[in-house]
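Progress note, sequence design subtask.
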């Protein structure tokens, strides 16, 4: 790395609106163009301004981040650790913890910039290299949590949340080959939001993970009415039914009381507690744990039907 760094040149001030191309940033920071491109690809330390012509340009904040990382590297800190430390303190990354996957930092910055193509590319690339569960836990969940924490402080918080939700829904669906339902007598798993739960993206991730495991699922979506839960569970009596609630204010254990069919019932998400829930309802939280539970219940039900 030492060979990539040289003393920064004295150059004119940065134009207030136009930003700088990568060649001028190299001259100002003392980093080679190759290093700058590598840092952008690996750590998300790239330009955040877009010119009127659609070209990406570096801002003062971008330069300050690069210089901060360079100072840490000069002190002997590994580049990846230096980048995580600097990005975690940057408002461009929603204040994500330093230990979060670097892709999450880059995704947060792209979302705040409302850069849909970059968000799509980052998610698609990450999903191509790992599982749905890993992308959800290491990238999407931290970013969505950070957006939720700062939602009221963001001038365009609604747009940022909708941007990520829409693109994540598409990319999660594309990430796996759909299960061939030929010969199926119906869905093995029903995925629904509690009647007052508006956020269905965790269930989209669960459906994608189940598809990857070869399990047919049906996603009922946000704000599924209690009568719909009851009627659908009755129609698909051999299915496992999971009901998502992310916050306590949208939970109502009575939604399970009206389901009289023999379906296995799962209360999924951090909104549920054991209060008011009685067997056979299973309480679970986290995508990996939810998928594991649904897979186990499905396997037990399937083996029981063949006995």
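Output:
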């Amino acid at each position: 790395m030492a060979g990539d760094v040289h003393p920064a040149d004295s150059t004119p001030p940065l134009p207030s609106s136009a930003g700088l191309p990568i060649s001028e940033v190299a001259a100002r920071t003392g980093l080679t163009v190759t290093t700058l491109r590598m840092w952008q690809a690996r750590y998300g330390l790239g330009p955040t301004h877009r010119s009127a012509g659609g070209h990406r340009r570096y801002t003062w904040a971008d330069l300050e981040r690069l210089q901060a990382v360079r100072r840490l590297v000069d002190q002997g800190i590994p580049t990846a650790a230096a980048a995580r430390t600097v990005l975690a303190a940057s408002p461009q990354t929603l204040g994500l913890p330093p230990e979060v996957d670097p892709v999450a930092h880059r995704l947060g910055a792209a979302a705040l910039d409302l850069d849909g193509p970059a968000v799509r590319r980052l998610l698609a690339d990450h999903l191509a290299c790992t599982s749905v569960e890993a992308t959800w836990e290491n990238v999407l969940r931290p970013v969505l949590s950070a957006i939720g924490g700062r939602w009221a402080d963001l001038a365009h918080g609604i747009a940022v949340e909708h941007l990520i939700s829409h693109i994540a829904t598409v990319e999660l669906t594309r990430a796996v080959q759909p299960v061939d339902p030929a010969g199926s007598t119906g869905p093995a798993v029903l995925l629904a939001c509690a009647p007052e739960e508006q956020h269905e993206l965790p269930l989209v991730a669960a459906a994608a993970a189940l598809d990857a495991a070869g399990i047919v699922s049906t996603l009922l979506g946000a704000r599924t009415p209690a009568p719909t839960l009851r009627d659908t569970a009755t129609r698909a009596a051999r299915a496992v039914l999971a009901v998502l609630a992310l916050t306590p204010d949208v939970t109502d254990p009575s939604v399970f009381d009206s389901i009289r069919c023999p379906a296995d019932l799962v209360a999924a998400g951090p909104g549920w507690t054991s209060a008011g829930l009685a067997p056979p309802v299973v309480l679970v939280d986290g995508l990996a744990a939810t998928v594991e539970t649904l897979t186990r219940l499905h396997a037990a039900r399937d083996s029981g039907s063949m006995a």
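The domain at 189-306 is CATH 3.40.50.280 (Rossmann fold). Work on this subtask will continue into the next period as scheduled.
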